[in-house]
Design brief:
Rieske Iron-sulfur Protein, elongated, 15% helix, 8-stranded antiparallel β-sheet
Length: 420
């Protein structure tokens, strides 16, 4: 699966983590590699292997200066591509510098995200056309949160729609919701039916349940290779949101949320004490170690600040404050890597099953036939949206929502209040 991931550009960090030229380097754990990110004097981002190719000292302690990072052990200096540009402990007449490179990966910045390509191509493929990552910077809201479990556990939470009516809305009674809204229909019928289809970019589901007379409420969501999800929290046609579940290693991930301002609330700040993210959860100050970035203040060490009193009084289904924290508690509670052979999957898990199958088929096709995975060379297939819609019972959901699922299309006639 790691080779599959390396065919794609990977969201690596927030641009704000490298706030200025020649700022402090940052340790980055990505796809099992220990890497050092830095922004050079010209504002370009470099991502190099942690160990200097000379004697293995960590470049984290390097001097970020004059368009390169200089190892403090012997002064060897590397630019953002990994080229050795200075070797001051070798004789001036030596050409040894031209024979040495640090392992370095191409980086691009777009939409407040630093993207990296860790794959085999000398010329990387294009970045995916993810709509929220292509908006003007002042219209984009970003969140990053680390999670201590395998990336697939996080992703599968996003494509499991039935848990919404329990984990997040389990304490809400239908009579306490506004009739005619998505929330009302969700808590009135907590067992949706499903339709799942393969797509050029991955897979899509439509989960449906009764709305008012003769109509159905559909929640339509996307899986996009290799680790993206578009969840159906808003109105289809209005919601502009994508979420990435990026493997740091087998047992840790970084979750990135990219959305337009109408789709999400306030932007996450970086490195501030008790920073509050867009969903209202508090973040601890970032540390400089490999696993020290974007950690929730509510975590396994304090049982995610569960309030058993609120849970017993049925004021909250879980007693855990915050939707993201509820998700994090559950997926981390499965352990670092869940043994899937112990699961008993039902009809509500049809999208989880389909996505696992798609991932395994693509990984095998790459390994056995060198077949390029879906979406690598087709950035346009990522131009899709997710969300909810009310449709007549007789409607073909794919035909009826085709235009609403297209990115970069305005629908001013739609009312966001229907989400409830």
């Amino acid at each position: 699966m790691g080779n599959l991931m390396r065919q794609y550009w990977v969201p690596t960090m927030l641009s704000s983590e490298l706030p200025a030229p020649d700022c402090d380097p940052v340790r980055v754990l990505l796809l099992g590699e220990q890497l050092i990110a830095f922004r050079d004097s010209n504002g370009k981002v470099g991502l190099l292997a942690n160990n200097c190719p000379h004697r293995g000292a960590s470049l984290f302690f390097g001097r970020n200066e004059e368009a390169g990072i200089r190892c403090v052990y012997h002064g060897w200096k590397f630019d953002v591509s990994g080229t050795c540009v200075d070797m001051p402990n070798e004789p001036a007449e030596s050409d040894f510098r031209t024979k040495v490179r640090a392992v370095g990966y191409p980086c691009q910045e777009r939409g407040g995200i630093v993207w990296s390509y860790l794959g085999p191509r000398s010329s990387p493929p294009p970045l995916p056309d993810l709509e929220p990552n292509m908006l003007p910077d002042d219209q984009v809201v970003l969140t990053a949160i680390q999670r201590d479990c395998n990336w697939l556990q996080g992703l599968e939470g996003d494509i499991d729609t039935s848990h919404l009516g329990f984990l997040h809305l389990g304490a809400i009674d239908p009579e306490n919701t506004k009739p005619g809204t998505f929330q009302h229909y969700t808590v009135k019928d907590r067992a949706p039916r499903y339709s799942v289809v393969d797509t050029e970019y991955g897979a899509m589901y439509g989960a449906y349940r009764p709305a008012d007379a003769g109509r159905l409420y559909w929640r339509i969501a996307q899986f996009l290779f290799p680790f993206y999800a578009m969840i159906p929290t808003g109105v289809l046609g209005l919601q502009v949101l994508a979420r990435a579940w990026v493997p740091m290693d087998d047992e840790h991930m970084l979750f990135f949320s990219m959305g337009s301002r109408p789709s999400v609330a306030t932007i996450t700040a970086v490195n501030a004490p008790a920073t509050r993210n867009r969903a209202g959860e508090d973040l601890l100050p970032n540390r400089t170690d490999w696993n020290g970035r974007f950690r929730l203040a509510a975590n396994a060490g304090n049982d995610y600040k569960i309030d058993r009193g609120r849970q017993r009084r049925r004021e909250d289904y879980t007693g855990i404050p915050g939707i993201h924290t509820q998700d994090q508690a559950i997926t981390e509670s499965m352990g670092p890597i869940l043994d899937r052979s112990t699961e008993r999957l039902g009809t509500s898990d049809v999208m989880v099953i389909r996505v696992r199958r798609r991932l395994m088929e693509a990984a095998r096709a790459l390994a056995e036939r060198d077949l390029t995975p879906p979406g690598v060379d087709r950035p346009d297939v990522y131009r899709v949206r997710s969300g909810g819609a009310i449709l007549p019972e007789s409607a073909d959901w794919l035909e009826a929502t085709a235009e609403l699922r297209q990115a970069f299309v305005e629908h001013p006639q739609l009312d966001p209040a229907i989400a409830g």
